Structure formats: C-alpha cells, structure tokens
C-alpha cells in the first residue's frame, strides 16, 4: 500500500490541488510569498512518492542553482519523514541525529541525485554534454562533448581580441562590453551575423556584424559555447534532429518551471519542444503520464532587459490548454494567501503595485498578523543611510538575541551602492557578504585553475591555453606566444596543436622552446590521465606539477595566502560536486563551475548580513529587509523615467524587494548621494509617494490621505482616479484587432484581460517585444 501522503497537509487546498494534479498542463499564478515554489517542491515529492515517477523523468527549472538545491533538500526531508515512520515508527524529528543523517543520505543517493533540476543554463549544458556532437550550425560547424563554456569575461576578452587585434579597430569606439551586449541581444533574437547586418546596415551595425561573425568562428574553433548558445543550441538541435528530440521528450515526462514570468522566447521554445515533441502545443493531445507545470507572477517580471517576456505566461492556457480561456480553472490555479510577510508589509506592497496599469488584478491575503509598521528613513547622505542601518541591526539583534546577522538583507538597485554600506559594516565589525559581487569563479587564481582543467578537458580551448601558458611564469615571452598564435591562425588549427608539436615549437619558439615543450608535455600527460582520474585528483595534481602552488607559496604575502586558500576552497567544491552529482567527471564539474553564481553560495543560517541587488533577491526571503536608495533616478532608475513601461518594470522590482521581508521592512532614501564619483542632491523616489502613509512610520516625502488598511486590494488608485474619464474606445478592442502605437509600431491584440472597469490588452508588435497595455492610459490606434 502506498504510504499515506500526509506531507500534503503542509499545503492549503489550492496548493494541494496544484500538487495533486497529475497529467496535462497546469499553471499556478499568484502573488509573492503565496507558496508557489513550495507547491512546485511538493509536486516533485508527490510525483516521486505517490505516482512512483522515476526521478530521471523529472525536469525542474529553477531561477538559481541554489533554489534547485533547496528544493532537493526539501524533497529529502519530506521523504525522510515518511521513511522514519516506516522504518522506525517514529516521526523524523524524534530520531537521533545519526539516524536522521542515515535516512537523509539513503534518500539522497536513491532519489535527488537523479533529478534533473537547475537553471535553464545548467540543464541545457547537461543535455549538450550528451548530444552536442549531433548538432551542426548554419555554417556546418560542429562541437564535441567536451566543449568549454565561456563566461562573460571570457566572451568579452574574445570580443576585445577581435576588435583590437583582428580588425584593428579602436576599442574606445567599439567598447568590447557594448559590442558583446549587442552580439548577445542578436543571438537572443535569433539573428545570425548576416541577418543582423541586414537589419543594421549602417557603419556601426556592419562592424558589429563582422565582429559577431568572427566571434562565432572563434567560439567554434575553441570548441566553446557562450551563455547565449547554451539554450539556443539545444533548441536548434531539437529542431534539426527528430531522434534527439524524441529521446529527451520521452525522458522528461514531467516538466516544472519556477518563475515562469521571466522566461524568454528561446527558453519557451525549449520547454515547448520537450513537452510536445515538436507538435504544435494546441494540437498536442498525448498527455498520458506527462505534464507541464509552471508557476509565476506577472507582477514580479523583472528581466525584460534579458528578453524575458511575461506574455509567455499569459499565453500558457491558450497554448498548452488547447485554447482554453485565460481564467479557465481546469488548467490554472490561483493562490491567494501570503504566508511570508506580515500584514503591514504586504499591504504596502499591494498598494504600490496597484499603481501599475499593465497588470492583472489579483488577491493576496495576509495570514501572519499585522507586525511592526514599515519604517521609512530620510538620511542626509549615503553614509548616514548606512549608519542608520547599522544602528537598527545592532538594536534589533540586542533586543532579539535569536536574530543572527543572517536574518538581515540589504537590497539596492545597483551594485555600486554596496560600497558605502560595506564601509559602515567594516567599521562596526558586522559580518556581511555581498551576494553577486565578484564571483568566486571570477577570481584570478580560480580562473587560472579552471583554465588548466579546461585545457585538459578540451584541448581546442585556446582562450584557456593563452591564460596559463605562462602562468605561473615559466619563461615563455610575449613574442613567442604571438608567434605560436600566428602560426595557429595561419594554419587554421587550435593553438594547442602548435604548442604540442615539438618540431613547430623548436622552429618558432626560439629560446623559450624548452619551456614550451615542457609545458606541453605536462598538459598532455594530464590529458592522457584524465579519463582514469577523478576531477579532484586532476586539479590537485596539475596545480602542484605546474608549480602554481609553489609560486604562490614563495610569494609569502597575505594576498598570495588568500589565493592559496581559495584554491583549497576550489578543491572542496570539486569534492562536494563528486558527492552530489551522478556525473562526477571533469567535464561535468567544469560545466557546473562556469554556471555557478555567487547566489548559489548563500548559505542558510550563515551569520552574515546579505547585501545584494534587487534583481538577485528574486524568490528569496529574509526576516528583516532594508530597501535602500529610494531616490528618483536611482530607483526608479533614470532610464525608466520617461518610459512608462520601464517605469512599471521598476515598480515591479520594488514590489519584489518589499515582498522579500517576512517580519520587518525598512525603506530609506538620502537627500544627497555620492555615486560613481559624483555628489548630487536627490529627490525621494516617486514610489515612496505611492505607499499608504498610515502604515508607515518615519519620514515619507509627501503624505497621502490616510487609508484604512484593506486586506485585499480593491481597485487600482490610478484606475479610480481615471474612472471618471470617458470610457474611450476600450471595450471595442477585440482579439485579432490590428493596432498602432506611437513607439512600438504596428501590432495585433492577442489577449484581453479583466472586465469592464479595468481592461488590459496584450499586443504582439511586429518590431517590438509583446506588451500588456492599459488602453485607457497608453494611446493605441485601431487600424
Ligand atoms: P515568490 O513569489 O517570492 O517566489 P512564492 O509564491 O514562491 O514566493 P514560497 O517561497 O513558496 O512563495 O513561500 C513563501 C513562504 O511561505 C515560505 O517561507 C514558505 O515556506 C511558506 N509557505 C508556503 N505555503 C505555505 C503553507 N501552505 N503554509 C504555511 N507556510 C507556507
Ligand atoms: Mg518562489
């Protein structure tokens, strides 16, 4: 008999319904903190437990790798709780800790190790490690399974080389960072270099297209992919090769996606292909033992600059639900209770987001009691803002000894804001960590070590080879390296083939020939050993043999000491990886390492205050949150000030920030701020003026008339104030209508949301990304 599924008692009826829905499509839409991620987690446990789905058949996409790990841990606990009852006839909590550990590790080995869970990037990298050799790009180029993943800094240095060395252009005019950004956008829009040039025929566009073409050549020559390729390539591969697609379609019977509102078109295509095996979603009927389950919140869509498009979420029902209406509850569930935030915090968030016109109204009820009022502080400048925060943290930790520093988070709009805050923490001896700052894997010594490993795994990776050929110094000079590189370019072979060929080296490397040959011998002996050694053995071996460790030890400075420690930490990471993953090969570890973000290292219970940007805070929660720098031009960001849609995205970002707080929220703004080297007077953020003043203590710039807190949002203030306006032509829009917008151009209405009082319409534009617009606010001409 199946064990009673009592773990589902941790869910409310709507969550339970979502979790228990077995086959077919299902969309969960709900506001922040309403238990969407929890529902997704329990659904995985339920699929495994109740429906006996094999973990290998589940694909779950999360926003960070850390979120994936947390979900895995949670699933383990759920399983262990049940197992405890079976094995020991006691609840899990009543077991001794060795018994608990034993149970957890049994579950771990048997279940969670086999789940396919992670970000789009890490899952795609895993798929490609099986099948990339079956892919051919439009120029007939191919990749091998040991491909390297170039991160942003590798990609930028490649662009820089092309701009300055190959094309001899001025890198002031063609800044590598900007050029790389353009290339990335083109890739995300599915534009080839030729297509990009057709769309941008002017000089600047032509140059970008040329760099883009050469950049792609270089990636291919290095047997490497960048982050944009990681998702695009599997999509193209699935479109090219029916058998490959059929294999993955059959494997992943149950697909789950968290934060679905921030999915972009390529990611959507990937999901769609996997679910329907290439059939059009609307005609796909074969839902036996198969499901697609997505959760999201349009009010938290904050990644449009990375081409995220929340109309994908809005189209879910029409798409996978075979044309069902948007509010058809057969394939859609709403969650309306918030379990995260105190009522005061939630009400502030609810009121703020009502100022957005392009949204779908929803209910979000508090369940956790009122809590302390939200506090707003006006500081003289950024230093005063920081010292206010330090004082609050000190007071609160004194008053509530159970609160460790790990209970606090500071959220800001741009990374540059962290410096002033860090100064204050250093002065007052408060432990803190900047999340998403310089990533562990971006540190010099870590990049060096990883480059050694990449060279061993993928000899075509010339970027890594260039990095380590003379690191540590082994007497291979710049001229020699230039000669070697020239030879490789002229012969059209990877740099390694030249470096590893004694005759060539002896001819062109002059006095450095001996050093080059020795280096090549060392690397090639590790390449031979790679198949029979673990990733950890290779790392430790090559770091010793290359004299990298010796070189650092000889320096005997604090800095060198800390670099040595980081290398040790990298060994720990490799060891951990070998324990956690089925694929513990060098290639597997490298894919994982290039995709790790600092966010992934955020340990629960760690006693340091977290500092991070609002974008990184998505999906997270903290007992106490400080939302800082609420100033016009900073937050909302100046670029959004004259663009209503960007401004709404900024407001959503603010909504995300507010709703991270569980117990208490502090808002702050400064009258003057030094940022990026300038000291400037600041005006309080317009968002502050939109908050309900009766729920806020401290200084609010312009108070509004007091409002009684309402547990459920009723009507948008903007809508109310506009309700006297003529209803205009709003009701006359219908799905299929062609419309014209002043800046977005011509488009077609794809959805109409809401009812008479407040209507939003979704429009697919021919030359801009799709938008949801309030026709009462945004002028649209019907064609
Ligand atoms: P976000 O939109 O910010 O991603 P979310 O909808 O994913 O939020 P969760 O993170 O799943 O929300 O849940 C928010 C908090 O509420 C978590 O601490 C979670 O453990 C808790 N929670 C969720 N569902 C319930 C429930 N039914 N009973 C009690 N607590 C719950
Ligand atoms: Mg969530």
Automatic annotation (TrEMBL):
GO cellular component, one term: DNA helicase complex
UvrD-like helicase C-terminal domain ranges (all copies): 343-619
Residue ranges of the region described as Disordered: 702-730
Residues involved in ATP binding: 30-37
InterPro entries: ATP-dep_DNA_helicase_PcrA, DExx_box_DNA_helicase_dom_sf, DNA_helicase_UvrD-like_C, DNA_helicase_UvrD/REP, P-loop_NTPase, UvrD-like_ATP-bd
Class of enzymatic activity (EC top level): isomerase
Pfam entry (one): UvrD-helicase
Family named by the database record: Belongs to the helicase family. UvrD subfamily.
Organism: Lyngbya aestuarii BL J
Domain UvrD-like helicase ATP-binding: residue ranges: 9-342
Comp. bias regions, Basic residues: 714-727
Keywords for this protein: ATP-binding, DNA-binding, Helicase, Hydrolase, Isomerase, Nucleotide-binding
Catalysed conversion reaction: ATP + H2O = ADP + phosphate + H(+); Couples ATP hydrolysis with the unwinding of duplex DNA by translocating in the 3'-5' direction
One annotated GO molecular function: 3'-5' DNA helicase activity
Protein name from the UniProt record: ATP-dependent DNA helicase
GO biological process: DNA replication; recombinational repair; response to radiation
